[in-house]
């Protein structure tokens, strides 16, 4: 569906809001490039000189992995399958306690810059190199999808130029990462998180106003089965799969992923680092609740006329942009705010990834094998940041060409993250483990997780497990012009009314 399909398209005010978001992000990079112009070492550039405080770091931690996937996919998940993803809140709590008490003290007291330095100290240089290479592959693949997938969904609904948005956001992101280092990344994350929240709240407030309050939205969701939390025969996610599985996923992100660890070890004390994790927990819970309630709003508005089944959107990720263009079209600038929120999610994730990639390349692949001065390493850090920024934009282009093949590559994030989490956990809690056991465990874990991951692509779950909850189009009327109208009829207008409860395969983006 394109931007002129009945729900309005981007106006000048929307482009202005989007442009302001990009300009502010770029300005932060320029400011920190000027403020830190006297920095002499790569450590200053990559860790902010370890002078950061808890509040900005916590907000940056929250923004880093709350990507556009959260803004677009979580509400669509609630709309189609119910609000069970709210149980991720349990996994967030467990993850922050484990990270704070198990991983943080080790990384902080060793004063390392790259988490993979720990693997050499604990096991061997070969283990460190293998961990670094796996992280680089994992992150580049993931970042390409993070840039391209939301751009595609937003382009098809709002009519906003696809490659204009991809390249402009990619270039701005690369610019402020290269100019300002970690401090620029952290403070742009703070700004982008506020944009994400503003975008969510604009949709929620307008939906509540349109539907007559919070209670009708909750009631609609309950009647539609979206609040049925405990029936394992209806749900594709249960409390146990989300809370336990989610704990392992988020522990691999907060416990050992360079992009997150690099932030909290840049705090000026270990107590500030711990505090940043727990403030970040509050941010994660609030954004999770916003995304779940946005999904309930989506269902309440379209409970009688599902745009997905009616063919008004071609993929579930387009449902939220469709809602925005539908209910906010009379408020110039607000659709632009929501799109800015989605792209802020992408920017915060991509900037964290670029910064982390530059860090592990300099610390794990250059510093141990060269005799460069700190000044040279600092310039090399900036060069690597620029290189990885361009590479991630290139991966977005590759995602557009390979489509489903590269979409499947996002599962590599979990396939690689699991064995790496096991490796670090082995080193920290099993003092008797040696380097041979560590390498054997990492390689066998990779083989096993690849087998499971690739097998899932060839043998997807049966349709009954991928079937969404009931969705209907009985309230839709499609006029001969093809534009969506509601059930109030106009005399003489030719209309087509239909009712379906579809069985969709879950092969969407």
From TrEMBL:
Alphabetical GO CC annotations of the entry are:
extracellular exosome; plasma membrane
Localized where? Answer: Cell membrane
Q: Which Pfam families match?
A: SSF (PF00474)
Ordered alphabetically, the record's keywords are: Cell membrane, Ion transport, Membrane, Sodium, Sodium transport, Transmembrane, Transmembrane helix, Transport
Its GO biological process annotations read:
propanoate transmembrane transport
Topology term for the membrane: Multi-pass membrane protein
Query: What InterPro entries does this protein's entry cite?
Result: Na/Glc_symporter_sf (IPR038377), Na/solute_symporter (IPR001734), Sodium:Solute_Symporter_SSF (IPR051163)
Question: In Gene Ontology terms, what is one molecular function of this protein?
Answer: organic acid:sodium symporter activity
Principal subcellular localization: membrane
Q: Where are the transmembrane segments?
A: 12-34, 54-73, 85-108, 129-150, 162-179, 186-205, 237-256, 277-302, 337-362, 383-402, 408-430, 437-459
Q: Which Gene3D superfamilies match?
A: Sodium/glucose cotransporter
Does Transmembrane appear among the keywords? yes
Q: Which family does it belong to?
A: Belongs to the sodium:solute symporter (SSF) (TC 2.A.21) family.
- Its protein name is Solute carrier family 5 member 8
The organism that produces this protein has a lineage beginning with:
Eukaryota, Metazoa, Chordata, Craniata, Vertebrata
- Name of the coding gene: slc5a8
